[in-house]
Write a structure and sequence with these properties.
426 residues, mainly alpha, membrane, transport, Putative MFS transporter, xenobiotic transmembrane transporter activity
Length: 426
């Protein structure tokens, strides 16, 4: 029978995560990593099939990109709903129900007769994947805080980085022996595996005494309180705008490299993997950086560097200097800087509102995927080319940098906020 025991908070200075046996802690973190991968897998696995879907369903590239936008909107909206729900009734039930919804939507995508139906089902897929994303982040905040949380977010970002490497590769392999519909068969199988692992391994981490039962009015009050925190709002905007740069790459890269440079689906998967390598390396190197610098310092520096690389990308894309290498190298460097932003901005934001971790994580995720949802079709509107992708990537990094230094003002944040040191296994 699946474990349903609740992890209760300790009476001393140790976090609940520190009290877990090392083996059990490893299993929980591993499953949390799987859950954070569900969203990226849902988004990225069918990227190599976008041109195929365009021709098969006899539509336009911009219209097909709206199915990606639908997924992102579902992820954003779902987090707004699931986050407060998980604060009210606990983490396990919303998580398992959400993954089940994702499975059902994936099955229906296999038989979708037209683009409108596929788009609607992709929204439903996003709603289901949202539960996995927001509950995983809330569980991290239930178990750890401060620097330990930032380190664990870096480890989870490893999975988020690996997923984009594997997802297009798996999608390309599936397309080599079946149609784009086979991608959703694979997503169904993955969803079932994640549902089983979550039900067996994950305990309830929010005890009844810490649950918030204010109903709709209480949820509105919680969101209202979050919006009054200028630093928190600034941090989630930074995370969202950095995500916009990432999703500009995600939505535009298949057209840029397959249509613009004539790459096959398998070649595109390898190019896409190269960008994810930079993302992965940065998130893991962040753990080492945290031993010497604060999350605030890393966040500010990575945004400035990412802005510079984004400007180089835009200039080279507009002039054509450097050819393919002139696009790939600065693009991969921007993604590397995004890899440093991704763990530190959420860790700083959630550390401010541990009393409502689910709601705070929900708003963070909703902003991330909501801004990403706006960035994805914007690339198509601007022309589905290297310049269009570069404009949105640079714009996202520019806006994130401005918000960071004007609204968040990381140099003024108390050092203690990001340096609460608790033991955590590496």
């Amino acid at each position: 029978m699946a474990e349903t025991r609740t992890i209760t908070p300790p009476d001393d200075d140790l976090t609940p995560g520190e009290l877990l046996p090392l083996g059990r802690r490893f299993r929980i973190v591993l499953v949390l990593g799987f859950l954070t991968a569900l969203g990226p897998l849902t988004i990225d696995m069918y990227l190599p099939s976008l041109p195929t879907i365009t021709s098969d369903l006899q539509t336009t590239a911009a219209a097909v990109q709206l199915t990606l936008t639908g997924t992102l909107l579902g992820l954003g909206l779902g987090q707004l709903l699931v986050g407060p729900l998980s604060d009210a009734i606990g983490r396990r039930r919303p998580l398992l129900a959400g993954v089940a919804v994702h499975i059902v939507a994936s099955v229906l995508c296999v038989v979708a007769p037209n683009l409108a139906t596929l788009g609607a089902l992709r929204v439903l897929q996003g709603l289901g994947a949202a539960a996995a994303s927001v509950v995983a982040m809330a569980i991290v905040r239930d178990l750890f805080d401060g620097l330990a949380a930032a380190r664990l977010f870096s480890r989870l970002m490893l999975v988020v980085g690996v997923a984009p490497i594997l997802a297009p590769t798996i999608g390309g392999l599936v397309l080599s022996w079946t149609s784009w519909r086979g991608v959703f068969v694979v997503l169904t199988v993955i969803g079932v595996a994640f549902l089983i692992a979550s039900s067996v391994v994950l305990p309830e981490t929010l005890p009844p005494a810490r649950r918030r039962s204010g109903g709709v009015a209480g949820t509105v009050r919680d969101y209202g309180r979050l919006f009054t925190d200028r630093v928190y709002v600034g941090l989630i905007l930074v995370a969202g705008l950095a995500m916009a740069a990432l999703f500009a790459y995600v939505s535009g890269s298949s057209y840029v490299f397959q249509d613009g440079y004539g790459m096959s689906e398998q070649q595109f998967a390898l190019i896409f993997a190269g960008g994810a390598v930079g993302l992965i390396g940065a998130t893991q190197f962040n753990v080492r950086l945290l031993r010497r610098w604060t999350p605030q310092q890393i966040l500010a520096t990575s945004l400035l560097a990412g802005l510079g690389f984004g400007l180089v990308l835009l200039v080279l894309a507009a002039t054509g200097i450097g050819g393919l290498a002139g696009i790939l190298i600065p693009l991969w460097l921007v993604l590397t800087m995004v890899g440093l932003v991704m763990p530190n901005a959420p860790a700083l934001a959630l550390n401010r509102h541990g009393e409502a971790a689910g709601t705070a994580a929900a708003l963070l995720g909703a902003v991330q995927f909501g801004v990403g949802a706006l960035a994805a079709p914007l690339v198509g509107v601007l022309g589905v080319g290297a310049v269009a992708m570069a404009v949105v990537v640079f714009g996202g990094m520019l806006a994130a940098t401005v918000v960071c230094f004007v609204v968040v003002r990381p140099h003024r944040l108390p050092v203690e906020q990001g340096r609460t040191i608790v033991a955590v296994a590496h």
